[in-house]
Write a structure and sequence with these properties.
466 residues; alpha+beta; Transferase(Phosphotransferase), domain 1; 3 domains; five-stranded antiparallel beta sheet; 16 helices; 13 strands; transferase
C-alpha cells in the first residue's frame, strides 16, 4: 500500500494480507542490490528472532518467504503507532504513566532475553506505542541486529564485520561501542533501557547528541566508555527554557520534576547505565521490579554509587596521576609523622624544662618563706631581748644600781628605743642621784664635810671610806 520505513538493509511497506485473515501488516523486504550473503543472513536472523518471540509487547511475525526475484521478505504485525517518547510527550503523560509504559517495555525485553535474544538497538523509534481501547500498548520492533545467545538463528554465517558499529551510538553500552570485543550479553540491553528511561524522565539524552556527532569515532567511544553521564536532575536544570517545556509535557513544574528526580527516581536509570555491567540490574525483569518499587513506595534496589566504588574507579582511570599523588602523599605523611614525633619530643623536653623550672621556683619560694620566718623570729628575739633589758634596767634602777642601768640601756638597739627607754635614760642620768660603793659590809654611819663637798662612810667591819 505504501512505504512506511527504510533501514540499512531493508524496506518496510504497509501491506494488506488476504489470508488466513484479512488485515494490515508490515512487509519487510531486502533492498535491491543488498542481497549479499551477509545481508540475507542478517535478514533471515531477524525473521527467525521474531518467530521465536511471543509477547504482547513485541511485534509478531505472521509469514515469510522469497519473492520471484529471490529477495527474502517476512510479514509481521503492523503497529499503527508512534515512538514511545513522541507518544508520551504528545499525550503529556506524567511520570507515573511513563513509568507504567516503560515497565511493559522491560517485560518485552525480558521475554526476548529469556529466549536467548539480545536486541542491541533499543531506542525510542524501535518502540512504537498505539492505543488499544483506553490502554496504551508499546511494541518492540526491528530486531535487525539482534544477537542470539544460546542458539543459531540461521544456518548462514551471521557476524558483525570488523570495524562496523551496529546500533545507535547514543543508546549503546560501553561494551557494545568497543569494537575490540564481541562480549555482549543481556546487560547491554539493560544499559540501553537505562538511556531510554533517562530520556523519558528528563526529556534529553545523557550525552549531547550534537557533541557526539561532531566528535570523532574514537572520542565517541571514549565518552561512552569512560565519561559518567550527569544525573537527570542536573541535566534538566542545565537546559534553561527548554526545561520548562519538558516539565509541562509531564504535567508538572521544573522545580517539582527536578525534586522528584533528585530524591531517588534518577537512581534507577543511573544504575541501569553503570559502566561496569556487573553493577547494573541483573535483568530487565529486575529493572521492571524496581520501577514497580518506586510506584508503590517500596525501597529501591538502586541507589547512588558508593564513595568506595567511585574512588576505585577514579584510581583505575587516572592510575599514573594517582600513583604520583600517592607518592607525594606518602612523602607528606612521612614528613608530618617526623614533624609530629619531633614536635612531641620537643614538647616533652619543654614539659620537663617547665617542670624543673617549677621545682626551682617552688624551692626558691620555700627558701624565701624560710628566710622570712627566720627574720621574723630573729626580730621577735631582738624585741624580746630589748624588753628584758628594759625590765632589768627598771629593776636595777630601783635597786640603785645606776651603773647597771646604764649598761643595759646602752645595749638596747636604737631603732627599738621607745618612751620606756627614754624614761629610764632620763632618771638614770640625774647627777643628784649617785651610788657610792666600796664597802664589803653594811654602812652604819655617814659624815659630810662642812662645805658639803665630801662624804665619809664607815661599816660594821670598821672600814672607812672618804
Amino acid at each position: 500500500l505504501e512505504l512506511i520505513g527504510e533501514g540499512g538493509m531493508g524496506l518496510v511497506y504497509l501491506a494488506e494480507q488476504q489470508e488466513p485473515v484479512r488485515r494490515n501488516v508490515a512487509l519487510k523486504i531486502v533492498k535491491l542490490g543488498m542481497d549479499t550473503k551477509q545481508v540475507i543472513a542478517r535478514f533471515e536472523a531477524e525473521r527467525q528472532t521474531l518467530a521465536v518471540l511471543d509477547h504482547p509487547n513485541i511485534a509478531h511475525v505472521f509469514d515469510a518467504g522469497t519473492t520471484r526475484a529471490g529477495r527474502p521478505y517476512f510479514v509481521m504485525e503492523y503497529v499503527e503507532g508512534v515512538s514511545i517518547t513522541k507518544y508520551c510527550d504528545e499525550q503529556k503523560l506524567n511520570i507515573e504513566e511513563r513509568l507504567e509504559l516503560f515497565k511493559q517495555v522491560c517485560e518485552g525485553v525480558h521475554h526476548a532475553h529469556q529466549k536467548g535474544i539480545i536486541h542491541r538497538d533499543i531506542k525510542p523509534s524501535n518502540i512504537l506505542v498505539s492505543n488499544h481501547g483506553d490502554k496504551a500498548l508499546p511494541k518492540i520492533i526491528d530486531f535487525g541486529i539482534a544477537k542470539a545467545i544460546t542458539q543459531s538463528l540461521t544456518e548462514e554465517t551471521f557476524f558483525t564485520r570488523e570495524g562496523q558499529l551496529l546500533g545507535t551510538p547514543e543508546y549503546m553500552s560501553p561494551e557494545q561501542v568497543d569494537l575490540a570485543t564481541q562480549d555482549i550479553d543481556t546487560r547491554s540491553d539493560i544499559y540501553s533501557l537505562g538511556v531510554l528511561l533517562y530520556v523519558l524522565l528528563a526529556g534529553v539524552l545523557p550525552f549531547d547528541r550534537e557533541s557526539l556527532e561532531k566528535a570523532g569515532f574514537a572520542e565517541l567511544q571514549r565518552t561512552i566508555r569512560e565519561d559518567e553521564p550527569p544525573l537527570p536532575s542536573t541535566r534538566l536544570t542545565s537546559l534553561g527554557d527548554k526545561a520548562k517545556a519538558i516539565a509541562e509535557s509531564r504535567r508538572t513544574q521544573i522545580i517539582t520534576l527536578t525534586r522528584r528526580l533528585h530524591r531517588e527516581l534518577e537512581w534507577i536509570p543511573m544504575k541501569a547505565m553503570r559502566k561496569d555491567r556487573t553493577r547494573r540490574y541483573r535483568s530487565a525483569s529486575e529493572l521492571a521490579d524496581d520501577i514497580q518499587n518506586y510506584l508503590t513506595g517500596t525501597p529501591l534496589i538502586a541507589g547512588p554509587e558508593s564513595a568506595v566504588y567511585r574512588a576505585r574507579k577514579f584510581v583505575r582511570k587516572h592510575a599514573g596521576s594517582v600513583a604520583t599523588a600517592a607518592l607525594v602523599a606518602v612523602v607528606i605523611i612521612l614528613g608530618l609523622v617526623v614533624s609530629i614525633v619531633m614536635g612531641c619530643r620537643a614538647e616533652q623536653a619543654r614539659e620537663k624544662e617547665a617542670a624543673a623550672r617549677k621545682q626551682v621556683e617552688q624551692a626558691l619560694v620555700r627558701a624565701e618563706k624560710a628566710e622570712k620566718l627566720a627574720k621574723e623570729r630573729a626580730e621577735e628575739y631582738r624585741r624580746s631581748l630589748y624588753l628584758n633589758r628594759i625590765i632589768l634596767s627598771d629593776i636595777s634602777y630601783r635597786d640603785g644600781n645606776m651603773r647597771r642601768v646604764r649598761e643595759l640601756l646602752e645595749a638596747c638597739p636604737e631603732d627599738l628605743r621607745g618612751w620606756e627607754w627614754d624614761r629610764l635614760n632620763h632618771i638614770s642620768s640625774d647627777e643628784s642621784c649617785m651610788t657610792l660603793s666600796g664597802h664589803s659590809d653594811l654602812v652604819f654611819r655617814l659624815a659630810v664635810s662642812p662645805d658639803g663637798k665630801r662624804i665619809a662612810s664607815g661599816s660594821f667591819k670598821g672600814e672607812f671610806r672618804p
